[in-house]
Every structure is written in structure tokens, then in C-alpha cells.
Design brief:
Number of helices: 16
Number of strands: 30
Structural class: alpha+beta
Radius of gyration: 28 Å
Helix content: 25-40%
Strand order of the largest sheet: 15-16-17-1-18-28-19
Strand content: 15-25%
Distance between the termini: 35 Å
Length: about 650
């Protein structure tokens, strides 16, 4: 059995009859894997066939050596400079909501922002160790971490990056007004100390094991673009005004101290005459509709919202800088002063694509040369054109049916477990997703650090009989027509919501779930909601069951999904044993203990079934053949473009 590149967790499930559609064909299939396929075709049972197989094998070996030598001459290695130039035209079906990493994050926005913004550190693809990006090195203990920044790094506007930018970014991310989901992740940061322009130290409220892992998602922002006083001509909303203008919501103080008595809360569009400037404060005279006032205000505004210049004109330190936005299609040009390994591709353009048919057509006609996520039902059609190959890459996420504990029936563990037992996940996984990925029993991807093939953690087996017994125990009885009813005689009905943007396979899974529940007497009504409405209902808890997937970082921080009052605990789930385990985990300083306690959490979730955990699926990218160097080895499961310095375009 051949394997997808870069991830032994994802075996290629193709059989001998489907070699032409194997995702490792056309340069992705190894000679050994190809020979294995041929052996399967020939199945030699005679001397003649065995001789023929030896001849074919010899031809493959000789041809492979010759081809490999030619390829070595034609294709540059990673140690050589790649051919420069070309434009990468990419898209996905996910809408692009922002250019920055924090204001309106979704996967599409975060992937684009990866080209523009960078973090202090990142994970190595080879062994998940932490390696430097903006940081040249770091010193870590369980109580603090100190980052030493690279020298010579500049923002795209030429301003040098400094430790003050890093400290400011932490303030922005943790600001309640920003509303970043990362804010709670950094609750353990007690204080920030800037040593000099290249050194910054974060101290912690509690011991933290491998603290550098937590700083991988922190994309650094340019502090100088968050000035509280701006040229009115730089903001479209204030384009009709002249002179300097202060942001709304700022407090004017009588002296430059946080605790000093405030003079006034400035109105939006207040004009200011700047009299004095320090590194952190501005003194000036303000003119607004309520009169003229003098005082101090902070020089930088540690809040990210739609009025922030960074949202309108993103300036980062990454390998590409935003060049233009035409018809909602951003174009980023290679940043020639980039501090890291030079990128070969000259320009990256994200094209708008709103439906699957358009995505497939763009790939077929070459108006796109890369799709970051291809729906499973397009794989065969896209490959059949002969111009595009598909590439499977690992996912740091999982898919599940969320059971809302606000519903009295779903608050019962035996009911949630019964719904899971009555759903034949293995069969549906093979039918709709080509057997790729894994059926799971908890919120952990096979690519996560905690994954283990332990029989005690295996998915619950399909058993409608056991499901029926559990429903009986929950006092859900059968009526004469076979429907399940409660003690009051009313039939049991659940409302399942799913985003209308989901793939055909995902919608089919929801409908299959409704059919499976009907077999045990429970009526499930499936409703497709426009994505914005789906998100509103999810956050409001306005559902019984919801089909949802979660994409996580390497740290695999799932606590907000299941901890009481967790930020993403939309199902109002509570389990005291689980709470105790997570509280213990907070004070654990041993890596082995962290993994052991996380697996204990997994065990509880497997038994308690707050979700019917479905599967963790690899993502499928599609690349036309002129995009070279891209493979499952160098596609980041979450950020996608992290190793784009290994790609190039055939001119």
C-alpha cells in the first residue's frame, strides 16, 4: 500500500484498479509503490508471468535510474535557487473575510494572512520541534520565556521590527475589544518586559510546559500602524476631513498615567493639534463638537477592529506584501527584503470562487492553478482533465455532531451514547470520503501529539440493539407506531442544523444520520442554514444537534469546546470529572503527564459522547502541473503556505 507524502498517518486507500486516480500518481507514486501496483495487476501464477514480471521490474529499475538522473538535472533541489517568477492563482470555497489574522478569522483569512504576517516561532514539519521565524532564538523555563529577535527584519513599509511590536501584539490579542479567540489562550501570561529592541520576556501566572508551543499562532502586528492619531486622508470614513484625527473611544487624560483622572472620552473624528510626543503618549489640544480640551492620550491603540488601518491596508513582515485588491481579489507581491529564504514565486493572487462547478472550471481552464481545499466529490472530475493533480495533506481537526445539553433528552449521557451507537460511521465514512482519514472517538486528529491506537480509545461499534437498550433506560419508550416518546407521550424530535456551505458529502451524512435515527424511533429534522445564520444559531445555542468541524493548531487546545463555560462550548456541556482533569492539566509540568492526562480526557469524552465524533479527514489540494515542488510534505495542515519557499512555477 502506497502512502500519501509526508504523513504516515494517511495511507493511500487505492486498490490496483484505481491506480490512475491514486493521489500519488504522476510524480507522486514511488517506483516501489508502482511496482507493487503492477504486481497486483499481473498476479503471476505461472513461469511465463513470473518471467514477464521480472522483465517489467528490470525495465522499471533501469528506467527509474535514468529518469531520476534526468530529473535531478532538470529540477532544482532545495539547496539550489529555485527558478524565480510566475503567479500563483489560488482559491477555495471558503469566503475571505479579512487580510489580518485576528479581526474576522476563518481558515481562508488566516491562510492569506500567513503570506503577509509571521509569528515568532513555528513548528518544524519534520518532528514538531519549535523553530525560529521572527525570533532567532529563545530561552524558556516553566515560568517565563525570552525571545531574541532577528536583526534586520523590516515591515513591508520599511520600518524595522522591534520587541515593542511583539509586546503590543500581545496587548491587542488579549484586549476584550479585539475579541480574538486567542485572548483566552494567553491568560497564563502575567507580564511582558521589553529588554531592548531585540529582546522580550513573557512571565507566566503558572508553570507552563513547552511554552514556545503557545506562541506559534501569535502573528506579530506593526505597532506604528496603530497610532491613535492619524491623517484623516488615510481613512476612507474620514476622507472629507483634513488634518490629524483621533480614534473614537479614547480617553483624554490630564497627565500621562493609566490611573490619572480622565478629562473626556473623545468622540469619533475629534481633531487634534499635536504638541508633544513620547514613545507611548501624545499631548495635544482636541477639537470636537463638545468644545476644545487639552490633555494626554495613548500614542498607540491596542485594539483591532474594522477601523484599524491594518484591516484596510495590511502591512506585515512576511514573504509577500499586499499589492492591490481588485474585485475582492487580493494580489500579493514577493517582498524582496524578506529576512527568510527567498521565495521563487513572484506573485500570489486569491481568486473569488463561490461554488464547486466554478472551482472545477477554473482549474480545468487554467484561470486557477491551485485550490487549497477541494471537495471530495470533485476529486475524480478534476483529475480526469489530465491537467491537475490532487494532493492529500494532513488535517489538524475533526468532524462531529454536537449534542446540545440544553435539550433535556440530550443532557442524558445514555441518550447521546445511543445516538452514537445507532450511527454506522465506518460504512458512511467509506462511502462518502473514499476511506481517507480515520473514524474517531474523541476530538483528536491522527496527526495530533496525543494520538494513540489503543483499543480502549477505539470508536464505539455500530450497535442499534445496544442503542435501543440505552433509550429504554433513559425512559424513552416505543409507541405503537414505533416512534420514541417521553413519559408525557410526546414523540422525541431533534432539530439538526448544518451550514449550506458544506460539501455534498457532509449534507448527505446529516441526512443519513436522520435516517439512522428514524430506525431507532427518533425523528431528526435536518435544516440547511446560510452560513452566517448557522453561526448565529450555533453561538446562541439555538439547535438540538449541529454538524460542525473544528480546525486546530499543533497545540490542539480543545478545552474551550468542552470545559464548563468554555468559549466554544456551544452545547452547554458539563462534566465534573472532565473539569477536574483539565484543572489538573493546568498544573502539569511533565510532557509525559500531559499526554497521559489528555488521553484520560479523551477516554471521558469517548464514554460521555458530548458529540457523536465522526472522523478526522485529510484535506485535498489540487494543483495544475506547472506548480512544482508542492506536495503533502510541505503543505501546512492549518496555515497551508508555511513552506511555500519550496514551490516554484514552470515558466
Amino acid at each position: 500500500m502506497c502512502r500519501f507524502p509526508g504523513s504516515p498517518a494517511w495511507p493511500c486507500r487505492c486498490d490496483h484498479a484505481t491506480l490512475p486516480t491514486c493521489p500519488r500518481r504522476r510524480g507522486e507514486v514511488t517506483w516501489g509503490g508502482l511496482a507493487m501496483h503492477l504486481r497486483g495487476y499481473l498476479r503471476p501464477n505461472s513461469r511465463v508471468m513470473r518471467g514477464l514480471l521480472r522483465a517489467v521490474w528490470l525495465a522499471l529499475v533501469v528506467g527509474g535510474v535514468a529518469w531520476g538522473a534526468a530529473a535531478a538535472r532538470a529540477d532544482p533541489g532545495l539547496t539550489a535557487e529555485l527558478p524565480r517568477g510566475g503567479t500563483l492563482l489560488y482559491s477555495s470555497l471558503l469566503p475571505l473575510r479579512a487580510y489580518d489574522p485576528y479581526s474576522r478569522p476563518n481558515v481562508a483569512s488566516i491562510r492569506l494572512s500567513t503570506l503577509l504576517f509571521e509569528s515568532l516561532v513555528d513548528h518544524s514539519f519534520e518532528d514538531r520541534s519549535v523553530v525560529g521565524r521572527l525570533a532567532e532564538s529563545f530561552d524558556a523555563t516553566p515560568d517565563r520565556i525570552t525571545f531574541h529577535l532577528k536583526k534586520g527584519v523590516t515591515w513591508h513599509d520599511g520600518t524595522p521590527l522591534s520587541a515593542a511590536d511583539v509586546a503590543f501584539t500581545m496587548d491587542v490579542v488579549r484586549s476584550p475589544q479585539t475579541g480574538s479567540a486567542l485572548g483566552t489562550a494567553y491568560s497564563f501570561v502575567a507580564s511582558t518586559a521589553v529588554g531592548n529592541d531585540q529582546t522580550i520576556t513573557f512571565s507566566f501566572t503558572r508553570p507552563v510546559v513547552q511554552p514556545a508551543d503557545y506562541f506559534v499562532p501569535l502573528r506579530i502586528l506593526p505597532r506604528h500602524l496603530f497610532g491613535t492619531v492619524v491623517d484623516a486622508r488615510r481613512l476612507p470614513a474620514l476622507a472629507g476631513q483634513a488634518g490629524n484625527v483621533a480614534y473614537a473611544g479614547l480617553t483624554l487624560r490630564v497627565e500621562p498615567r493609566d490611573e490619572a483622572r480622565a478629562v473626556a472620552l473623545l468622540e469619533k473624528g475629534s481633531r487634534i493639534q499635536v504638541d508633544e510626543v513620547s514613545d507611548t503618549w501624545i499631548r495635544g489640544t482636541m477639537q470636537s463638537s463638545s468644545g476644545t480640551k487639552s490633555g494626554w492620550l495613548p500614542r498607540y491603540r491596542a485594539v483591532l477592529d474594522l477601523d484599524s488601518p491594518i484591516c484596510l491596508r495590511p502591512v506585515g513582515s512576511g514573504p509577500y506584501q499586499l499589492e492591490s485588491v481588485q474585485f475582492s481579489e487580493p494580489s500579493a507581491k514577493r517582498y524582496e527584503r524578506y529576512h527568510g529564504r527567498p521565495h521563487a514565486i513572484e506573485r500570489v493572487v486569491r481568486k473569488r470562487t463561490t461554488d464547486k462547478a466554478t472551482l472545477a472550471q477554473h482549474l480545468a481552464y487554467g484561470t486557477l492553478n491551485l485550490a487549497t481545499e477541494l471537495p471530495y466529490d470533485l476529486v475524480t472530475a478534476v483529475e480526469a482533465g489530465g491537467q491537475t493533480r490532487t494532493i492529500a495533506y494532513p488535517s489538524l481537526g475533526f468532524v462531529g455532531l454536537m449534542h446540545n445539553n440544553r435539550n433535556p433528552w440530550l443532557a442524558k449521557p445514555e441518550v447521546r451514547r445511543a445516538l452514537t451507537l445507532a450511527f454506522d460511521r465506518q460504512t458512511l465514512h467509506a462511502r462518502f470520503y473514499h476511506g481517507l482519514g480515520e473514524v474517531i472517538s474523541g476530538p483528536f486528529s491522527p496527526y495530533s501529539y496525543v494520538w494513540e491506537r489503543d483499543p480502549a480509545l477505539a470508536p464505539l461499534s455500530f450497535s442499534p440493539t445496544d442503542a435501543a437498550l440505552l433509550l429504554d433506560r433513559a425512559l424513552m419508550t416505543r409507541a405503537a407506531n414505533g416512534a420514541r416518546v417521553g413519559p408525557d407521550g410526546n414523540p422525541v424530535t431533534f432539530a439538526l442544523i448544518v451550514s449550506a456551505e458544506r460539501s455534498t458529502e457532509d449534507i448527505s451524512v446529516c441526512e443519513a444520520f436522520a435516517d439512522a435515527m428514524k430506525a431507532i424511533g427518533i425523528d431528526v429534522q435536518v435544516t440547511r442554514e446560510e452560513h452566517g445564520r448557522f453561526a448565529e444559531r450555533l453561538v446562541a445555542g439555538d439547535f438540538d444537534i449541529a454538524f460542525q468541524d473544528w480546525v486546530l493548531s499543533y497545540s490542539y487546545f480543545v478545552k474551550p469546546l468542552f470545559y464548563p463555560n468554555g468559549a466554544q462550548n456551544y452545547i452547554a456541556y458539563k462534566n465534573e470529572a472532565l473539569r477536574a482533569l483539565w484543572d489538573e492539566l493546568e498544573n502539569t509540568t511533565s510532557t509525559d503527564e500531559i499526554i497521559a492526562k489528555t488521553r484520560a480526557i479523551w477516554t471521558v469524552l469517548r464514554e460521555d459522547c458530548p458529540y457523536t465524533f465522526l472522523w478526522s479527514l485529510p484535506k485535498i489540494a489540487a494543483a495544475r502541473y506547472q506548480v512544482l515542488g508542492i506536495s503533502g510534505h510541505n503543505i501546512h495542515p492549518y496555515y497551508f503556505f508555511t513552506r511555500m519557499d519550496e514551490w516554484w512555477i514552470r515558466q
